[in-house]
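Q: What structure does this chain adopt?
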Amino acid sequence: MRKKKIQIGIGLLALTGLLAIGSLSVRADSATDSLYQYYRVNRTFKVWTAGIKAKHWITLPKGMIVQAVKQTQLSSNGKSMNVAEFNFRMISYATRKNKLHMKQTWRNWTDATTRTPQYLTAVKPPKVLLTDHLSASRQSGFLSNRADNRGNMVIATVDGYLEYYQKLYPTGDSNFKPQSYAKITKIRQSGNVKYFYYRHHIKGLKDQAVRKSGKYRYRLKEVNLNKKVTLQYPSVNDGLPSTYFVYTLSNQKYYVPTGEFK
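A:
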């Protein structure tokens, strides 16, 4: 069993947006449980995301695929709680807005917590994803054109949308609505090359018009370079070197954290 200590002060954490007081001891019950992975909701239930002044409740319907990490949290008084923490960036803007009724005004729309992780059943990463690498990083499911996660982001969501976010982390916050997005209509993969097809151009991406009309009109080519690089940024891992996988989208380099630190 692996254990790690996290000290959390009063205030807003830059990446997670969670509010907490005192300290928590977070224990992962296995190496797998410590990773952000993919789950199917096996019964309809509610989760909460902590806003600045209030908790916002979100109903997750049975059958929905989500990205989450399961953990056991020990509070400062020694009470043990089994929880799951969600990453809603991997769910499309269309679904967040229209089905989950989340709002752009919610400060912490990206994250939520439940004390009923038994309502989640682990599944294989959906084939629609840009990367199926699992890690303890909240950035494990999407690509950035800057390894420090302060650049433009591209996300292929679990429910089948390709979304482009311009400078998702300019100040540590996340944009609720992508600058441009499209519903994925087809995926074709050969080895380390993957093609995404959709109806219209996604502004910000160098996708290619391969047909004059129809639902397969535009195509984005992704190449997994099967390569790791070690980079160092003051804002990442306390300034220590971190490793990243490297991809290209239409010949432009993008990165995703491996979750390994030097």
